[in-house]
Structure formats: C-alpha cells, structure tokens
Amino acid sequence: MPTSITTVPILSPLDRCDRCGATAQAKVVLAGGGELLFCAHHAREHGPRLNELQAKLFLQLT
Ligand SMILES: [Zn+2]
C-alpha cells in the first residue's frame, strides 16, 4: 500500500462546502471512506480536527 497519494481530486465549481454552501475548495477523505467538501475557510477551521481523525485533506488552489 502506498503511504502517500499523488493524485489530487479535482473539484467542480458546482461542489459546495458542506458547512456554509460556499464554493468548495477542499475535499476531505475520511479514514472510514466518507468524503466531505469544505470551502477554504472551513478547511482551515477543521484542519486540526481532521488530522486527529486521520482524514486526508486535499486543497484545490484556484
Ligand atoms: Zn464553508
């Protein structure tokens, strides 16, 4: 099993933050397999918590 992921999921402009509905700029893949979408603001806000959950955070900078 590779320990790092080299491909970054591409977010569509139609993807929305699960918290506030803004355009999503980050995708979170949970250790259990679920996925969340966050705007830049909420990605930052939830970043530390996601680390604890061993979730992977992909940022899409536009
Ligand atoms: Zn948001």
Radius of gyration: 11 Å
Which word captures the global form?
Answer: globular
**What portion of residues belong to β-strands?**
15-25%
Category from helices, strands and their pairing: alpha+beta
Give the helix level as a range of percent: 10-25%
Strand order of the largest sheet: 2-1-3
| Overall tally of domains | 1
Uncertain segments are none
Question: Order of SSEs, N→C?
Answer: EEHE
Count of strand segments: 3
Distance between the termini: 30 Å
Count up the helices.
1
Bound molecules: zinc ion
Main beta-sheet annotation: 3 strands, antiparallel
Mean pLDDT across all amino acids: 84
Structural features, described:
By secondary structure, the chain is an alpha+beta fold. It has one domain (4-59). 21% of the residues lie in helices and 19% in strands. The protein has a three-stranded antiparallel β-sheet, with helices on one face. It is globular and about 25 Å long. The protein starts with 25 loop residues before the first strand and ends with a strand. The model has no long low-confidence stretch (mean pLDDT 84). The structure holds zinc ion. Residues 17, 19-20, 22, 38-39, 41-42 line the site of zinc ion.
